[in-house]
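Lab notebook, bench 4. Continuing the backlog of folding jobs that were queued last week. Each job is logged with the same field layout so the records can be merged later without manual cleanup. Today's entry covers Copper radical oxidase, a 489-residue chain. Filled in by technician R.K.

JOB TYPE: sequence-to-structure
TARGET: Copper radical oxidase
LENGTH: 489
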Amino acid sequence: MRLLNPSDDGKCDWVLSPDESDQRWYPTLETLEDGSMIILGGCRWGGYVNDANQDNPTYEFFPPKGGPVTSTILSNTLPANLFPLTWLLPSGKILLQSNWATALLDYHTTEETPLDNMPDAVRVYPASAGTAMLPLTAANNWTATILFCGGSNIQPKRWKSPSFIVPTYGASTSCVTLTPDVSGSYTQDDPLPEPRTMVNLIFLPTGKILAVNGARMGTAGYGNDSWAIGQSYADDPVLTPAIYDPNAPSGQRWSQDGLQPSTVPRMYHSSATLLPDGSVMISGSNPNSDYNVEPNIKYPTEYRTELWYPSYYSERRPQPQGLISQLSYGGPLFDIQLDSDDLFGNVSNVENTRVVIIRMGFSTHAMNMGQRYLELEHSYSGYANNTATLHVRQLPPNPAILAPGPAFIFVVVNGVPSVGVQVMIGSGKLGKQPILSVADLPSSSMEQGAGGSEALRGGALGTYARGSSAWHWAVCTCMALLGGMIVGW
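JOB STATUS: finished
OUTPUT FIELD FOLLOWS
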């Protein structure tokens, strides 16, 4: 293992850890409520899918907390149990999804509780669905709901069948959700606009989710099989992104209106991540055993990185004053000041404002580990001079809702976010996090005459602003290797 101590002077460097992990190819990592990491699954030497001769169906911790512990669900879900889909839940338990099986893991006691099987499709690698935990808000009582979209309907025995011609097998459009602290059963959601495997789901500061990258046919992986597309196990790349709105009515959550396609296929070994300025960096794609840019190859090693710009990118951004650099679990309120320009000249826009925390997580192999979106509770005071003050609660008093460590804070006014500012969640140290009393929020108020309305009063806000749908692409010629510090590629 290697460690990096971030610094602002450009002198930071990698150092070898004194601790080692078990041998793992394609494991999953998740940050726990004390800031440590759980490392789950993988195999010992690699391959398209796993097998009993190299399986490592265990989990361990960093910093170490004893030796590896065998997991029942990982042991029973060959061959598609690499990069198991994993989330720390507000209950403190961990959701584990591998092949068709689902379980709750209490890592304190090592007990695993089976939940319903995944419907419609395999979501883990190499079927590689898009996954995300939907926004955590006071309105949903900080309850975690996980969204799974795409993947492939492939039964365990078929993965290694000689008759399985992978790039001719269509991906799935299915989307389902699971709220594991409430129910062990899946719920059908709006399907994707088109089938996708190897799709990234990326949170935007507005609370909408960008679906980008992937293919309509096949799966992740590569090989020298006669039926491969060059070496690619996927074909028919999906070039047009889609947007999921978790607050839209059923049947209206997905849209591709106004979204422009890329010209760069992004399949195996691709990545995407939100940047603090609200754009999305998209990189990678190399369904080859090594570097290959031969002119006759359909899907070469890809060196171009794209930046995807939402419509709000060119808007005048809010420039909130009063953001704090560290958030505690509970604790006193803090005030954020918004001037007339931040409110677009109308103080009534304070009623359509959100304060959000996004942990961007780690991106590799068309998946995003550790990504999370949380909306802080707040009320407001609006003034006749078209300025306003947001009175903001700190984090809920439960580190399992948002684990300690670095994240970004955004203030979103009428669907236009500020540039994200890095904030430390919790103490900034490993260990049990201090829990403080939750502060009372004052009622929201508007000075008489402000915004042309009488005084308004109410509780903490949980409103959602929908942005417009004009988007464009920009392409530069550089290579990004995202997430490589965590897993092998």
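OBSERVATION: The CA atoms of residues 329 and 398 lie 6 Å apart.
SIGNED: R.K.
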